[in-house]
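Hi support team,

I'm opening this ticket because the web form for multi-chain structure prediction keeps timing out on my end. I have pasted the exact lines I submitted so you can reproduce it. The total is 558 residues across two entries, so I didn't expect it to be a heavy job. Is there a limit I'm missing, or should I split the entries? Thanks in advance, R.K.
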Amino acid sequence: MERRNGVRIDIGDLTHRYTAKTPLTFEKVNIKAEPGEALVIIGRSGCGKSTLLHILAGLLEKTSGIVQLDGKDVTEPSSHWIMMFQAPHLFPWMTVEQNVGTGLRFARWPEEKMKKRVAEVINLVHLDEFAQNNTQDLSGGQQQRVALARSLVMEPDLLLLDEPFSALDAFTRATLQKDVRAISKQLGFNLVMVTHDIDEAVIMADRALVMAGSPGEIVHDFKVDLEDPRERQDPEVQAMRANLMEIFHQAAGVPVDSSDEEGDDTSQPDVELVGN
Amino acid sequence: MSNGKVDVVGVDADSSAAALKAAQNRKKAKSMGKSLFNWAAGLAILFALWWLGGYLIYLNPDTTNFSDFGPIPTFKAFPELFAIGKIQAAVFTSGYRLGAGLLIAIVVGIPIGILLGRSVVFRELSNSPFQLIRMISPLSWEPIAVIVFATWNGAIVFLIAVAAVWPVVFATAAGLAKVDPAWFKVARNLGAKPWHMVTEIILPAIMFDILTGVRLALGVGWIVLVPAEFLGVTSGLGYSIADARETLSYDHLTAMVLTIGIMGYILDSSCAMMIKKYSWHH
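Hello R.K., no limit was hit. The queue was backed up. Here is the completed structure from your submission:
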């Protein structure tokens, strides 16, 4: 696959509320990112980080503010910015290959060109031997890899990740975190990821943005200046994790306690979609 | 040395996998054999009861004139009916009417079902009218259909379509209600246009439900077809039964009734096979 250039992300004074009667989800959020940068937004459940990601994907309408990619307003979904969700949501009537090629079929790619691209991406996520399998026969980690391939096949400039590894076992999660970051750096696209896992933020981010409060706001912008590949047991990674943990807990207004690193509530607010 | 050991282990693993597969195949073959036996035994019991009934009719002097309803005269009538082309013509004509009625039911029913499943307003608006119309016996439309349509053929096709449309509509809507909303979100995210939503997401996702509805519709249509052909027309399976009754050809009558059963069974089995083929549920 060709190397992409990524996009310049510009979010200015972004405000959102679901309806006129509901409180603000977040208010005057400002985020800027350079092409190819990996941002991880961390925060407790309900602070609006998932909503922010949906707006950035064009799947949800903003209330006010600016959301621009390379200077162009984001108003609807596009093959240039693709989102991966918490669950893989694969189409169970399709094989792995057909699932991966879904976006290309929508874009009416010629059959031969599409087959070639799909095979490349399946190879990239190490699923070659499963290409003809039905997705229901795959493990959770393999299914999430298919979802990743389905996103990467569109050659996005920006990959948005809404806690895509949270339902996986620790080993698979760690492998996928490293793989996704490596692929993003290899292909040069931007990553914006939402999580409440501090470890995940340190492993995957160039910058970690801490979101807190109600309505939510970005309270800290933390540079994760580490060499790749990043290993959890590396002392530098451990030190970075400790720093981020402290900032995260200060933002949340709770005493620092290393055992409470992933937040206490895994539930997410439902996201209402535009025109769906 | 270690290589030798690995080989031995590999051979053992291969042979035990082959043995396991052979055992699974034997079990599968045994299960299929048992199913086939039960299928044949069920049919044999039905025919035995039929033969017994025919024999009892034959033994009773009051009913002996009706003994042609029994299996032996019926099976003797088949070659005769085939030779004069009566069965072929009746099956073709009725098949055409059923096919046309069913096709209309599918073409009309699937979009309405999708609309019911996707639009709350349409669902609320159509609920009362649909339930009201659905409860009207399809055959009670016959006098109106005869007035409205220029030919009896058209009227019969209409009656079948009216009867068959509801299972398709409600099965489609019920299927859509079970579709994971996230699939739409993912599809939009990947650039799906509205027609992609229908052709690439909705229809494959609910194909199992649609075909189940078509299977039910086929049953209903087949049931409506025969009484609808009792009146007015001079062709088809229903007409052939009425005609045989008029001419007191009870062996022909039973042969036509049996033909209806066999045709219905074949059509229903074909639907069941299609459902199995297009179902993605594991």
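A quick check on our side: Chain B is about 85% helix and 0% strand. Let us know if the file doesn't open in your viewer.
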